[in-house]
# Entry
Amino acid sequence: MNDLKLLALDSEDLEVISTHVQDAIVRVGDMGYAQSDNRFALLLNRYVWDKSPTNKNNERRRSALHFDNVKSIKISGIDSLAKDGMLNLLAIIFEASDLPSGKIILTFAGGGTVSLMVETIEARLSDLGAAWATKTTPSHKEE
# Structure
């Protein structure tokens, strides 16, 4: 399987990236905001939802995701000092304010969020090459 590389420049593109990173595992210490570069980045172990349905092997891949044009961030419900803490990324959504500006929200299991105030949507997801088999497929209970 080829490494995945995606670019999001609008909310529809961002939905595609969100689909690919649903259920990714993120270490708190692998997220960071470079204020001088207006960039928020994170490393994640994404579940490979895009694998062929005929291939029954479950797989995770090491990936990088970054957002440019970030003016500020707000973290809620996450202990940013617990660098080894693990988070399960559920979704990424965009809330427009004064287009093209708005807020990108990364939602994690347990209610934690990272909110990015952005001038415009510009996000990149890239697989870094490392991949490994996993025995389980993520699932979600209906509420």
